Amino acid sequence: MGALLGKEKPLKEVLRENKRMINRAVRELDRERAALEREEKRITVDIKKMAKEQQMGAVKIMAKDLVRTRSHITKFIEMRSHLQSCGLKLQTVKSHQAMSDAMKNTTKAMMKMNKAVNAPAISKMMAEFEKENMKTEMMQEIMGEMLGDAMEEPGDEEETEKIVSQVLDEIGISFGEEIPVGPTLGTGTETATYSGPQKVSVGSTVGAGGTHSGYAAGGGGDSTLNDLETRLNNLNNGD
Q: Measured between alpha carbons, how far is 153 from 146 in angstroms, rounded to an integer?
């Protein structure tokens, strides 16, 4: 009816109708086969009855009928197998059609999503996030330096140096017992002799420029704080 009106049926509806027809044909074949099997049993009983009565002509005729019945039963079983094979092929086509529809819908959804996503805006947002994150880290460093300076007591540095020197002196004694200090080679002809284990003192370590190996003399912490503040101001001015 849809074809007469010029409107084609969708593939899903066509597959459903064909599958319904195949199932109907299989049920009809099953009914016919069941009827033939009942007829086979009846003919077998009649053959036995005629054989007991010594009616061999009738026995031969019914035997031919029995052979034909069994042949038709075999044909019906074969036809049912072919119909089931057709039904499986239709089911496969239906699965392919469902997969095609799913891929089509997925493609449409991905296209809409890609159109909705603004790549330049995301790049700009990431750049701003990185910038703000760097500001936050600098602010944390500045606040840490300021809080450290505010919480520091006048005698804390000397007490800290004293404790560190005491701990390193103990470590130096342990190293002196296990790994002795090697002899120093001079520039002249004399050879330095080993005078036994020596202690290592933190306070006596001097760099090439005559300054202590820890913080540089003259307020190294203040210069670091000023540098952080300068970098933070540059970032704020960049906005």
A: 13
Q: Is 29 left (phi over 0), alpha (psi -120 to 50) or beta?
A: alpha
Cα angle 133, 135, 137 (rounded to 5 degrees) comes to 70
Residue count of the chain = 239
Classify each residue of 102-130 as buried b or exposed e, where b means 16 or more C-beta atoms within 10 Å of its C-beta.
Answer: eeeeeeeeeeeeeeeeeeeeeeeeeeeee
Determine how many CB atoms are found less than 10 A away from the CB of residue 145.
17
Give this prediction's pTM. Answer: 0.43
∠ CA 89-95-100 to the nearest 5 degrees? 130
For every one of its 239 residues, what pLDDT tens digit does the chain have, with 9 covering 90 and above? 445 555 777 777 888 888 889 889 999 999 999 999 999 999 899 888 888 888 888 888 889 988 999 999 999 999 999 988 888 888 888 888 888 888 999 999 988 888 887 878 888 888 889 988 888 888 888 888 777 777 766 666 777 777 877 777 777 754 444 444 555 444 444 444 444 444 444 344 433 333 333 334 344 456 766 777 777 777 777 65
Structure tokens at 129: 């996030």
Residue 2 tokens, joined? 């849809």
Q: What is the DSSP secondary structure assignment for residue 211, as one 8-state letter?
A: S
With a CB cutoff of 8 Å and minimum separation 6, the contacts of 76 are 29, 32, 33, 36
Please tell me whether residue 112 adopts helix, strand or coil conformation. helix
